[in-house]
Structure formats: C-alpha cells, structure tokens
Predict the structure.
Amino acid sequence: MKLYICPTPIGNLEDITLRTINVLKEVDFVAAEDTRRTLSLLNHLEIKKGLTSYYEHNKDKKGVQIIERIKSGEKCALVSDAGMPGISDPGEDLVKLCIKENVEFEVLPGPVAFITALVGSGLDTTNFYFRGFLSRGKKEKKKELEELKYQKGTVIFYESPHRIKETLSLILDILGNRKACIARELTKKYEEYIRGDIDELLLLMQNKESIKGEFVLMIEGSNESKNEEDDELIDKYTIKEEIILKMDEGLSKKDAIKAVSKRRNIKKSEVYKESIDI
Ligand code: SAM
C-alpha cells in the first residue's frame, strides 16, 4: 500500500519523532539496512515488528520484493543504519523504484548527520555542497577532489576514521589550505567539533594514537574562480605548444614548465619531457 521513509537517531536514541514512532508501530514490516541495529532500536521503543534486510549488496533483488509486498497491500517502513534513509545509503534506489513502479511513498523528516554537522561547523550554511563518501581508491579520490576545487559553497564529506588522515592530506594538496571542521560522534557522549585550518586538523589527526568514531568533514568553499580561458588552452594546444606560448609571453623555460604543470595539474616531470627540444 505505501512505503514510509523513516529517519532514525544518529546516536542519541531520543532523536526520533513521535510520528516516526507511530509509523513504525503501524506498518506491516520494516526494511532495515542493518537488521541488528534496527532490532535494538525497536526493542528500545518496545515495538515488535517483522524485519527484512535491505542493504547495498541485496538492494536490487530485495527492492523488487519489497515493492511487490507494498503493491499487494502492505505498509513498509524503510530504516537505514542511522539518520535519513537515502542519504549515502541505498534508500535512494528504493525511492527511485517507487517512482518507477508508481508506488506511493512518504518521507518523514528527522535527523541527518551532515545537516547537524554543518550547522555546528560555523562554516557557510547558505551555500553548501554535500559530497558524501569519496571513492576509496586514491586515484579516483584525487580526481573527485579536483572536481571540487572551485566549489564555492562549504563542501561536506562523510568519512571513516581510518581514511580521514589520507583524505585530509589529499584535500590539503588539491584544494589548498582552508578553514575546515570535523564533526565527530554527533549526538553521542563524546561529540566534538574540531575547527581549524586543514593543516592544523591534519596534524591533530596525525598526532592521535587511534582515531575512532563517525566523522563529517567540512571544508570552506573556494574563493577562486575557474579560468575558462585556461580550459580552452588545454583543448587547443599540446603541452609543448603551451610551453612555447608561455615563453612567448615572457616566462623563462623553467617558469613556463611550472605554470603549465600547475594549470594542467600534472607532474612537472611530465611537462619537462615535452620541453626537451624547445
Ligand atoms: N543516512 C545517514 C544520514 O542521514 O546522515 C548517513 C549514512 S552514512 C552510511 C554513515 C556516515 O554518516 C558515517 O560514516 C559518518 O560519516 C556519518 N555519520 C553518521 N552518524 C554520525 C554521527 N553521529 N556523527 C558524525 N558523523 C556521523
């Protein structure tokens, strides 16, 4: 009959609305990203309900089954690991499937980790870009960060404790030093907001013996604008031609190599190779 997207606490168990509790009581079954975690929440709320798992690795098959059950007249509550289903979890796919299959659904408002973090960060909240998790591979991560270089609003990432140092270090290299904030363990006993420049946060993390908890990482937006003419140069000229162009503009060969490597964001050695016979 209907799907209800139910946000659940991101830490503090009191952060659940009366409406969500009532819906959880009313539905025929609950589709949960982590059935064990949802079971302990339902036990805490003294709600007994049938659970079915719906997570990244079974979402295609399970999504179809859930939709079939709803079509046959059942009410389902979708609950993610924590917070708002559909934000950095497979909830997005179930909503898409509902739209495709003409199945009615309703989104209940409630806790979202990144919104809580952003408000507490002290960074710009009028203009922000939620990026969620970056790819795990270093190469893909670098590429994704390159794309964020000129993002004007506060950039928001979800990150795991064992990748936070590497991510901060790449951000420092690619986006440059800026104001940042790490929101850790929000709504929990050891909640903290760590504010400072990226290099300070990186040092702090490097000096920690062990890094634990859940993190939202926020970086101040860029105050530089992308130079569209520079992009045109990449399309129009080869590396060698561009070095010559820069030298014609009055730069020494060394400075021209530096400028081209910086603008194309490639290694100086790569540019140097192209310059040997100039
Ligand atoms: N759907 C969730 C939401 O509404 O924000 C997020 C799910 S995502 C799979 C989980 C990530 O959210 C964690 O890895 C962490 O980056 C962030 N997160 C969740 N709870 C948090 C908390 N209490 N404090 C800080 N970050 C949290």
Summary: The pocket of S-adenosylmethionine is lined by residues 10-11, 80-84, 87-89, 112-114, 158-160, 183-188, 214-216 (CB under 6 Å).
